[in-house]
Design goal:
Layout: E1 2-7, H1 10-20, E2 24-25, H2 31-39, H3 52-57, E3 60-65, H4 67-72, H5 79-106, H6 111-121, H7 131-142
Parallel strand pairs: 2-3
Antiparallel strand pairs: 1-3
Helix pairs in contact: 2-5, 5-6, 5-7
């Protein structure tokens, strides 16, 4: 097996750890596995030297790729694809959070306490990400009143 490390923010790492475990072995049975396997390439690239932005994150989620996949799909993931994977899993976290809050608000519950419940479930603390920042993300997602039901267009 080969190992890749996806650069992510602390709260996204905790989300991935709760969802997939402390490490993950890529397979075609999950969203993350499909994304990782798609990112594989057979082209050689110079060794990765973290950019200042990636070095600031200091967190990464480790994914193992079984031999059968790197023999057929490739054995490396480019720097751009690693960064893209980090952005994709961050977007997945935000969408999961917003979907959860939408369901709770539709049931008549308040968004802020339910956001705290969501973060508690994934063991995410204020040190990992600011509660207000995630709440603002949810407000942008709502595009209007948080209390109004969400209707697919």
């Amino acid at each position: 097996m080969i190992q890749i490390s996806i650069p992510v923010e602390p709260h996204v790492k905790k989300y991935l750890m709760k969802k997939y475990g402390s490490t993950y072995t890529a397979s075609k049975t999950s969203f993350l596995g499909l994304e990782v396997l798609q990112a594989l390439s057979g082209e050689y690239e110079k060794p990765y030297v973290p950019s200042e932005q990636a070095a600031e994150l200091k967190h990464s989620y480790k994914v193992f790729i079984p031999e059968r996949y790197f023999n057929s799909n490739g054995h490396t993931v480019s720097i751009n694809n690693l960064q893209h994977l980090g952005e994709v899993v961050t977007k997945n976290f935000m969408e999961t959070m917003c979907q959860y809050l939408d369901m709770m608000v539709d049931q008549g519950k308040l968004a802020m306490p339910e956001l705290r419940t969501f973060l508690h479930y994934y063991h995410i603390s204020e040190e990992d990400v600011k509660l207000e920042s995630l709440y603002k993300t949810y407000q942008r997602h709502c595009k209007g009143s948080i209390k109004s039901p969400k209707i697919a267009v």
